[in-house]
Structure formats: structure tokens, C-alpha cells
Amino acid sequence: MKRIFTLRLSFIIVFCSMIQFVNAQKVVQKTCGFEHAYFQLSDQHPDFDAKNRLEIQEDIKENVAGRLYDDTTTYVVRVVVHMIYLADTKYQNIPDDIIASQIDAMNRDFNLLNDYSSLRPEFVQFLGNARIQFKLADTDPNGNPTTGIERKKGELGTANGWGILTGENHKQSAKGGLDAWNTAKYLNIWVCDLNYGTDGSEGYLGGYAYFPSYFYPLPLFPRVLDGPTVDYRFFGQHNWFNQDSLGNSNRYGMGRTTVHELGHYLGLFHAWGNVLDPVNYSTGCVEDDEIKDTPNSKKPYAVYYVEPRNVCDTIVNSCNTQYNGVDYDDMFENYMDYSTDSCYSIFTQQQVKRMRNQLLKYRSGLIVDRFVTGIDHVTSLNNKIDVFPNPTNGRVFVKQNAGFISDIQVRVFNVFGEVVLEKVVPANQTNFELDLSGMAKSVYLINFSANGVNTTEKIMLQ
Ligand SMILES: [Ca+2]
Ligand SMILES: [Ca+2]
Ligand SMILES: [Ca+2]
Ligand SMILES: [Zn+2]
User: Most buried among 93, 96, 353, 397, using CB within 10 Å?
Assistant: First the structure.
């Protein structure tokens, strides 16, 4: 119990210290309420944390999850957005087209359609494609047609910041908010003012979300509370608040606050891990996110820079933990770090595994469609060649451990069966790149052959 008390106290301290930090810089700082909520539940259920960590390790293991995990199916998830505004302004009552731009941002980042050209080269090998698509619901729980957007002028009281998490008024019609639609069948996203009565000079709470383990298999928490909440200031791409108050910058204008919260919703910790001492981060290199291909880091990346200068140019290596024999720098490009929208570009392959497994295990009722995209694996190679992203804008990454014993002949064919690119790669080269930039936007077949093994993958250039 003593540890638990310390925990809560440290949260109060870190919040205060964040305020001081922000005041000293006179800049906007944005935080997320995930850890606060997570530790509250850990207080009540002592084995909650350990169970979650164990499950992450199981989710990302090869083969263990093989029954559930396949890397070729895209899952389509239906979404309802509950738009709650305290004042009927364009800032708070976000228009439909900006809500649509948020869905687009989710589809971009969960399907590796984002621009990752500034991702540092050592991290390209870790790029994952979650292959989860989002669409606004077209039928409501009663079977009636809907736009997938609900609106209400709310009366949420005066709670703000983490006080919101205690009341959750915005998720309850009786308390001035909007009730969830069946959370087993809809991804419910609430948009409201999480920073009521503040002007941002002390920083903003951007959003928060809960792990599936709060609700499944047993509800430790009422299931009607399942779904991310995002502050209206950070919802959508280049919304009116961003245009008028943040200089229309890409710092928070690309819809990635919601992408980050969806990472939590699908079972991801923050990249630096849930650190019990968020004042000094003294255990920041011991505690981590249980994901191996996110480099262990000590604390949020955002604490190293001063906005608005932030342009991701501060390389940090806060922990010397090795992965595959390499001590990587902190991955500030990861959606689960505290960075800025323009810095983010990656969910790693292990994060993707975790999210897909969580979706299928606990949230499969959200899936309204599924289809196989891209990669046609040849069974004899047992899924040992991966070609991504698919579709691609030009650069194609190949990851293979197919056990070739002679050089690999790689040939790319267009739809007319003509060879448009040819390359010979040493058998033991596990990662390489093909550049289709400048070729006609179409489907291409990539053929790999070596010592009698012959397999073809299909890729879409767009
Ligand atoms: Ca860590
Ligand atoms: Ca990690
Ligand atoms: Ca490191
Ligand atoms: Zn977070």
C-alpha cells in the first residue's frame, strides 16, 4: 500500500513540475492521461500490471500468437464520434469535414501510408503496418442510418485535466455528455474540452484511453466507459483551434493525438514504459513497454526540447539496453512517445502484433469487414518474406529470412509481364530495398528466386 500511496503522490508532483517546466518556457506542452488512469486501476487490482505485462510478452511472441496473427488481412473497424461542445463554436463543435480528416489520419498511420522519409535509417527495419482501417458507422445500434457522428451541447461541470477521468461525465448523457454506443461493437471516440477553464499556459491534457484489459475478459471497469477521449484542440487535422491558436503548425495538426490514444486503446504502453517515479525517472531504464523493437528509453522525448523550436533534431540515447546487439537511440518517431505530430512516423512490428492481437482477442466485434491485402505468400516459404509497405509510394522494403543458400534473383514485373527492375541480393541479406519511384501507378509482381525456390509477391504502387 505504501508504494501505491507514493505513486499517487508522485503523480501530483509530476503534474506540478510539468506546470513549472511549461511556465518557465512559456510554451504549450501536451500530456496524456493514460498512465494516471492505469495506475489508478493498478491500485485497486494489485496483479493488474503484472498480467498486462505478461500478456504483451505473449502477444508479441512469434508463433504463440500465430493462430490469431496474420500479416495480410486488413480489418475494418467502425467508429462513432461523440462530439460534445460546451460552446457552439467552430473550435469546439468540430465540423464534419474535420472529423473526416481525423479518420483519414488514422487510416494513414495504421496502414503505413504516412510519410516516413524522415524516419532515421536504423529504424526502417522496424516499420510495422497495423493494417487496421477505420470508417464512421453507417448504422446506429438500433439499425438506423447514421453519419457516425453525434453532437451535443454538453454540461460537464467544471472538472478539467485529470479530474475528467474521475467523473467521466462526457461519457454519460445523464451527466451532460453522450452515452456510449455498444462498446463491443463500436469504437467510441469522445471529443470534448479536457482543459476547461485553462488557457494552455500550464500545458494541455491531449487525451487518454484505456487498455482492453480494463474491460475484458471481466470488466474491472464499466464497459460503457470503453473508448478514447481526445481534447477538441487536438482532434482532426489542422482544425480551427490549430489554425488560429497554434499557428496552423504540424506540431499538433496531423491528427496524431488520436492515433496515440488508439495505440493505448489497442494495448500499447508509452514508449518509455510506465515509470513509477515520473519525477526523476530514476527507474526509467529498468521499466519499459515490454516491446523489444522500441528502444528502451528513460523518459518522454518531449522533456528534452523546448517548443516551439521542436523539430526532432535532438538525438537522445537515454538507456544502454541492447536489442539484437545494438544500443539504439531513443525512437522519438514512435507514436507512443511524447513527441509532436510532425516527428511521428512509426508503429514498430512488435507494436503492430500487439495491437492486432488485442483487436482480435477482445475487440473483434468492432470489425465490420476484412480483406486480404498485398502480400501473397507462397506456403513453402512459410511467410518468411515480407514486402512493405503495400500499397507503396515508391520505396519498397523487403525483409526476409527464407533461408536461401544462393544469391537471390529479384525481378519486378509490370502487368504486361515485362521486367522493370532487376537486382541480385546476397542470400544472407535480410533487409533490402527496391525503388519503384517514377514507375506507372499500378500493380507489380516481385519475383524472388534462388536455389530452386521461386516465389512471387504482389505490390501496389500508388
Ligand atoms: Ca524505459
Ligand atoms: Ca521497448
Ligand atoms: Ca539506447
Ligand atoms: Zn499516452
Answer: 353
What are the helix (H) ranges across 26-125? Answer: 34-44, 48-60, 96-109, 121-124
Distance 195 CA to ligand 3 centre (A): 35
In a domain, 158, yes or no: yes
Assess whether the previous peptide bond of 212 is cis (omega < 30° from 0): no
Contact 164, 229 (CB under 8 A): yes
Burial of 106 (0-12, 13-18, 19+ CB in 10 A): buried
Q: Tell me how far apart the alpha carbons of residues 291 and 164 are, in angstroms, rounded to a whole number.
A: 30
Ligand 2 centroid–CA 61 distance in Å is 14
Interval between CA 207 and ligand 4 midpoint (Å):
7
Number of the ligand closest to the Cα of 301:
1
Radius of gyration of the chain (CA): 23
Other CB atoms within a 10 A radius of the CB of residue 206 amount to 25
Task: Determine the Cα–Cα distance for residues 213 and 44; give it in Å rounded to an integer.
Answer: 14
**Is there a domain that residue 199 lies in?**
yes
Whole-angstrom distance, CA of residue 243 vs CA of residue 310:
18
Helix, strand, coil percent values for the chain (each to nearest 5): 25, 20, 50
Structural domain count of the chain: 2
The kind and range of the H/E element at 229 are strand 229-231
* Whether residue 384 sits in one domain with residue 351: no
Cβ neighbors of 326 (< 8 A, separation 6 or more) are 122
Domain of residue 385 covers: 376-460
* Ligand nearest the Cα atom of residue 274: 1
Out of 332, 361, 390, a domain closes at 361
- Whether residue 88 is contained in a domain is answered as yes
On whether residue 368 sits in a domain, the answer given is no
User: Per-residue confidence of the chain (462 residues) as pLDDT tens digits?
Assistant: 223 323 333 333 333 333 333 333 334 578 899 998 899 899 999 999 999 999 999 988 854 344 444 577 899 999 999 999 999 999 999 999 999 999 999 999 999 999 998 899 999 989 999 999 999 999 999 999 999 999 999 999 888 777 887 889 999 999 999 999 999 999 999 999 999 998 888 789 999 999 999 999 999 999 999 999 999 999 999 999 999 988 888 889 999 999 999 999 999 999 999 887 877 889 999 999 999 999 999 999 988 876 655 568 889 999 999 999 999 999 999 999 999 999 999 999 999 999 999 999 999 999 999 987 654 333 335 457 788 888 888 989 888 777 666 778 888 988 777 789 989 888 778 888 999 998 988 888 888 876 555 677 788 888
Helix (H) or strand (E) holding 410: strand 408-413
- 123 and 245 together in one domain: yes
Structural contact between residues 26 and 201, judged by C-beta atoms closer than 8 angstroms: yes
